[in-house]
Amino acid sequence: MIHIYKIDPLTYTPFDKNFSKEDFSYLEQKDLKITTNKKKADIFLAGNHKSLKRFILKNPFLRNYLVWSQEPRFSKIKSTPYYPFSIFPEVHLMNIYTEDVFLNNVTNQDKKFITNQKLNIIDSSYKLSNRKVAALMSFYHGGKYSKLTIDGLNIDLIKKRSEIALFLFKNNMIDIYGQGWPTGISMEDSRFNERHKRKKDILKKYHFNLCFENTVYPKYITEKIWESIENKCLPIYFGGTGSSIYELFPTKSFIDYSELEDPEKLKDLINNMPDVEFICRLNKCIEVYNSFIEKPDHFWRNSRKQMLDKIVEKCNYIVK
Fold this sequence. Notes:
The protein is α/β, with parallel strands linked by helices. It folds into two domains: 122 residues; 175 residues, Glycosyl transferase family 10, C-terminal domain (Rossmann fold, 3-Layer(aba) Sandwich). Helices cover 33% and strands 13% of the residues. It contains nine helices and twelve strands. Strands 2-1-3-4-5 form a five-stranded parallel beta sheet. Strands 9-6-10-11-12 form a five-stranded parallel beta sheet, sandwiched between helices. A two-stranded antiparallel sheet has the order 7-8. Helix 1 links the parallel strand 1 and strand 2.
């Protein structure tokens, strides 16, 4: 049995029993157990490097550290193991860049596609009732401090999407839901209870959804674009350098802002888009969505198992 002490809460991960009982149980079956007793721990697990370094400084004589993160900015180091302090022990990594967390373009989307039903194709008689955009996202100081450079490229999208949202707001073309925005901009805080239900209630009033990821990196495709599609909103997404989104979607499906790189052009595209083009684009998105609904259960089970087995393999390697 390998006992793991969580330095961070690691919510919404396989180490969070309340998030995924199946994942948590699988790890326990493989002899990985969470402990709250530091003296009993074989591995000390963190979700980001800041809290890890604080913990190491307070506990200089402990060993066997692992950072497991599915957020690109929480763990930016690619080489594993690495040494945060020259006189302290090595730290092992499992993150986006080591390719141990997102194994394919739909990692972590299994629950959505297993439980949901196929979407109906939009009828050719469909008419756009309005052209206002919905945006469910926090402000994060407008991305002022969010630059994230990997391999010489800034992969941050927070600043870009914030600038788009503010431009569209000035042109009365967007309703923003989220935390931290300047007074008078956000309709409400989007981090509400029953988030998925509330998001559905919001998106059903719109036809377009600004749904950039926080960052752009291969295989880092979260629920944002899928929730837009399942609520019949045409996604406004960023599919530029670093994204693997076109491994899933055909061209001229979602609105790819990387092809525009100008909020004025985006405004004109939305305002001048014929209903027939909207229908064609959204139906292409729906067809991709439905292709994953049609995947057999064992596809999702095997995908999940591969990710969990990597955790087991890494933990066994560390203690040995």
